[in-house]
Amino acid sequence: MSFSALERSQIWENLGNEYFDVLIIGGGITGAGIALDAVSRGLKVALIEKNDFASGTSSRSTKLVHGGLRYLKQFEFALVRDVGLERAIVCRNAPHVVSPERMLLPIVEGGSLGKTLSSIGLWVYDFLAKVPKEERRKMLSKEKTSTSEPLLRTDILKGGGVYYEYRTDDARLTIETLKRAAELGAVCLNYAEAKGFEYEQGKINAARVQDMLSDTGIYPKKAPFIHIKAKKIINAAGPWVDTLRSKDTDGIKGKRLHLTKGVHIVVPKEKLPIQQSVYFDVLKDKRMVFAIPRGKITYIGTTDTNYTNGIDNPVANYADINYIIEAVNELFPTVRLTPDDVISTWAGLRPLIHEEGKSPSELSRKDEIFIAPSGLISMAGGKLTGYRKMSEKVVNLVCKDLGIKKPCITKGLRLSGGNFNSAKEIQHFTELRIGEATQIGLSAAVITDWVSKYGTNTDLILEYAYKMARQYTKPAELAHAAELKYAIEQEMVYTLSDYLVRRTGRLYFERPSLAEWQLPIGEMMSQFFNWTEEQKLRNLALFQKEYKEVMNWKTEIK
Ligand code: FAD
User: Fold this and answer.
1) Would you say 15 and 151 are in contact if contact means Cβ atoms under 8 Å apart?
2) Which among 217, 228, 333, 517 would be 20 to 30 A from 165, CA to CA?
3) Which of 240, 242, 385 to mutate to test the pocket of ligand 1 (most atoms within 8 A of CB)?
4) How far, in Å, CA of 58 to CA of 385, rounded?
5) What is the CA radius of gyration of the chain?
6) What is the pLDDT of residue 365?
7) 292, 384, 502: residue to mutate for ligand 1 pocket, most atoms within 8 A of CB
8) Mean pLDDT by 10 residues, the chain (558 residues)
9) What is the pLDDT of residue 25?
10) Which burial class, exposed, middle or buried, applies to 423 when counting CB atoms under 10 A from its CB (0-12, 13-18, 19+)?
11) HSE of 83 in the Cβ direction (CA atoms, 13 Å)?
12) How far is the CA of 58 from the centre of ligand 1 (A)?
């Protein structure tokens, strides 16, 4: 099934006319994983997303596929084992967007784990997650830790541990999962919101869905509602799970969500020039945060605070920024980070299950399924890392109810663009494309970036680039034009924000360069879609809002 923005009317029509086995509401990683699992077992699948795919929590995480070392502290061994084992599978299925990341764990006086406990903890972690030999933990002396990371303060340093996590781009992982689901026949659409449900003899059998694209202000109004009919309806709405449950006749009974906010800040690499990723203690509250170098920046996070404001667009506030800056300066005193060093931020909401009397950091990250008497299935909690297992669980349940005996096959199913067997293969593929691309002036950096985002689908972008090389004679313009065309025709991009935030992550990782590039890219987009001047300006204004919002906390500084 198409995943092109240019075929929206056809997809919309399809959604209204077909009778599906499963309708999934929510296009974050949970919904995407469920769609892929269900369609790969032969079910007829539809998925709708009210905003852009991955615009909820799934573009706002720490972007790690990880075993959750911190859960050892809470003795959640089963969770550590499950997500730890999953890391390897997620990496194998999408090696272009998931790769091993060396992580340093400094052990400091007053920190949450002592030397012995850290050593045992990391060993248990390796054991539970069946970590391959080359990635197993190594304990370091104080001197070796300090040599490995010279910026660490030495007065409280006792030693360190080195272990491996996997880094990813959450939004790209979501998109590659959805694209694979669509390749296998799932009908997926963004900007389509479930506003309510329909019932037959008390059982849920359809969702009333509205086209939300006109809400962007760029596109004209479409037919108001369609009914998407399905045997099973799954609520994978992340932080909105309870909002959607409240639209069901049964409302919210029993367990409910507890939202906590997590913020990350981005600084230029030279402001925090660490040698590797570091997972370090915040001494005042015994939490731990990550500092992760990525290209020309380092990002640091996260906070974990109760959240009760509007769900649709959480943003960082000054207290969040200050907390992270203080944590960095406490452990890396010579860097003297200030709010002025921050060049971007993001904030996300954890859709956790409420437990009476627990603080945000104590709440379990376990996933749970709620089944309402109406038949509405809701899935909440969980982690990006465990999305495949979570999906397996819920699709097993659906298959059982529908009398379908098909086992889960996603363990060996490559995501879109992920057809590589090793890091060496990725390198070889990249080198070959770099060689070809120089003919049209594209740099090695552009190709390397494309391969890390789109994997083997880079070939399609290169095809576009060859075709457009006469029209765009400047290499940087050609690169943007080809990538944007791919995003529109193959990744359902409708707005500049879709492209610069969720498909490419540029708002977070390359924000300063967007001062120069948002206009020309907006212009290209307008040409591709054949927009009026007014539509073009609205698209730019919509992005400008997001561009400014990530730095809104600055207005709080007196
Ligand atoms: P979401 O991504 O929020 O998706 C739900 C979607 O449903 C949204 O896009 C929303 O627009 C849509 N929706 C809602 N209502 C409707 C409706 N009525 N109709 C249609 N669509 C609707 N996990 C890890 O494994 N590793 C990490 O490093 C990590 N770091 C994290 C850091 C932070 C700060 C946070 C907040 C979370 C982190 N997590 C991490 C957890 C992980 O990000 C989440 O568990 C995961 O992204 C949740 O995905 P989801 O699909 O359930 O929710």
Assistant:
1) no
2) 333
3) 240
4) 11
5) 23
6) 79
7) 384
8) 95 97 98 98 98 98 85 74 85 96 94 82 83 89 97 96 94 98 98 97 97 92 88 98 94 90 98 97 93 97 95 96 98 97 98 87 85 96 92 98 97 98 96 95 97 98 96 96 98 98 98 96 97 97 97 89
9) 98
10) exposed
11) 25
12) 4
User: Using CA atoms, how far apart are residues 30 and 320, in angstroms rounded to an integer?
Assistant: 27
| CA proximity to 157, closest of 149, 166, 168 | 149
Predicted pLDDT of residue 228: 98
Cβ count within 10 A of residue 534: 10
Note the pLDDT of residue 125.
81
Helix (H) or strand (E) holding 323: helix 318-331
The SS3 assignment for 28 reads coil
In sequence order, what are the residues at sequence separation of 6 or more whose Cβ sits closer than 8 angstroms to the Cβ of residue 377?
232, 233, 234, 235, 369, 370, 371, 394, 397, 398
Closest to 486 in 3D by CA, of 520, 455, 445: 455
The predicted structure's pLDDT at residue 83: 77
**The pLDDT of residue 3:** 98
Nearest alpha carbon to residue 409 among 25, 39, 31 = 39
Q: What is the pLDDT of residue 133?
A: 86
Q: What is the position in ligand 1's atom list of the atom closest to the CA of 51?
A: 11
Choosing from 383, 389, 502 the residue with most ligand 1 atoms within 8 A of its CB, the one to mutate for a pocket test is 383
Residue whose CA is at the smallest distance from ligand 1 atom 6: 26
The answer to whether the CB of 418 falls within 8 A of the CB of 455 is yes
Amino acid present at 421: N
